[in-house]
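Help wanted!
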Amino acid sequence: MLNIEVNGKAVQANQGETILQVLTRQGIKVPTLCHLPGLAPSGACRMCVVEVEGAPSLIPSCSYPAADGMKIKTNTPQILSARKAIVELLLSNHPQDCLYCIRGGDCDLQRLAKQHGIRNRVFSGERVRREKDTSSPSIVRDPEKCILCGKCVRVCEEVQNVSAIDFIHRGNKTVIGTAYNQGLNVSSCINCGQCVLVCPTAALSEKSHVNDVLKVLSAPGKYVVVQHAPAVSVSIAEEFNYKPGTDIDGKMTAALRKVGFKKVFDTSFTADLTIMEEGSELVKRATGGGVLPMFTSCSPGWIKFVEQFYPEFIPNLSTCKSPQQMMGALIKSFFAEREKIDPANIVSVSIMPCTAKKFECGRPEMGRNSHSDVDYVLTTREFAELLRITGVDPSVLEPETPDTPFGERSSAGKMFGASGGVMEAAVRSAYFLITGGEMPKYTIQELRGMKGSKELRVKAGKIELGAAVVSGLGAARKLMEEIKAGRSDLQFIEVMTCPGGCINGGGQPLRADIEAVKARMNTLHQIDKDAPLRVSHKNTQVKRLYEEFLGAPLGHKSHELLHTHYNKRDVLA
Amino acid sequence: MSTQTKVDKILAGHAFAKRDKIIPILQEIQEAEGYISQNAVVKVSRHLSMPASKIYGVATFYNQFRFKARGKYHIMVCRGTACHVKGSLSALRLVEDCLKIKAGDTTRDGLFSIEVVVCMGACGLAPVISLNGECHAKVTPEKLKNLVEELKLKETK
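Answered by r_m:
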């Protein structure tokens, strides 16, 4: 225990803590721009400076360890003027277009300028003109708005282990860019959008499809249907000032109808369907000598990661499409036939917590007869924007239920939204597929929580499987290297691109801290606890779909509509 | 010897190299090829198990690396202190305007490239430029313009 003094008050600190950690615990909010909780500090922005008695200059609190006897001051005139000067200098080269900016009103730089009472432009530097990179189907980069805090570079490297972007050039010519400043689309970017979540300005944002969706909603002759992912209902509420972890599933469904969607389907339904297909695939591989371990294929960032970095493991990927694409394929086949609508007139929109889904829906194999199975993907953030534009306030609406034939879901499907959820759902149904009976207890505590890597040995009848759950591609890469080095005790591996799973996806509401993400996860688990239907194989609408249309899991129709293939990908990496 | 094999050969000479060898490797490649190509960055990245963006980031940090092939006529303009005092900035601007490229670039026809260097050690002769390694002392705007125009003319014949 260290005894230090903060603003004249005695405070205790733990060995190894940074000054910033101590101050945060004391309820003193020190402004930061480049700080990323959980990662090593970079100390680049200098916003967090404090005064330490005896030190020759101001000290960056994010990277300086607390020491015994330290006397710290946090708001002397010298500190405040230093912080103000930093913001003023950042603004000197920043476009003054806040009114038109996607992050207007929700920008860290803007907030800091306001907090520090900056009312006029003190420095006017030369405005650097740089082109936007709109080459990626998921993410737009606007280097003019970049303040070089480096958070995106660190997340891409340290969390996701992708490193599509880095600092290029030096000094005042520095930019964040890909190798050879090529477009993101040819880089190793996997479209996960974690960089968007940490970006303090609008230098990184999702490629918006709000206007396209608004246009088709009023286009004559178009039948616009929507699906929403399991992780959206527990996060969208944050955009409307609910506390993190509030589930507004029913109100959200009602809001989607108000906006003008003809049918509202729940992607958790196809999550249940995925379990039937993927579970059967696993049992077939495990009993028939197929390629093991099998990796899940729901997370499109992960798929691209394998295609470009581990092509030798492509046969290990489950051939199942993701729930979004399964739903898309069913809407334009089974649903179109049933309702006697020409698939060409159906516009299929999906609401996803994910930027990579925008990339996924554009993959050439994800469609038939030159129609994409999913036409537009909106992130949770864009969905909130759509609701604001159309003036629909979900908080005042009465909850409604989604439409048949893809409206029923088990809570197992709903749990796809959190890391470990796919595995838990798969184990519940695989147990049934193998033994014909139900598990004595559905909840598998070992697979839950925010840890990047979780493992479990599952016993079902005579079959015993090694299961692993990883989230965040850094954790995934570590496991891949172990398997490459000869590890063979694992048969089924769930990989989610984003740390914690879709609840922390790149399309989710901004400024959510780890506690907010945990709250979203807990809500999904609470939904599971309270649900009457907790296993995918008992979903009656899924059963009916097999009876009326698909036949059996892994059957001919399933193969045509619900399964896909992957290709080795050459990228600039 | 083709481009491919030059880089491969250099990398083979650094068989068990780790990331600390990145600069010597890039220097050797530039020595052999005159510049660092996109292909070379990808190969170095695979060889060192480092992301391509990182290799490119390190390479662009240093002024010594070029990312475009040199032209047939490679013009180096000295921007050292003595040359600066003697007006090397206008010399550089003039060459850039004549060739319609910026320092570090190569013209599309592959004939000319410009590079800024910090000092050639001929300060007594400032301002100095070098054309394919041959020094031209006390250049004036007229001299420079004539030099470039002559070369252009020679190539169109």
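OP: Thanks! One thing I noticed: The first strand of chain A starts at residue 2 and ends at 6.
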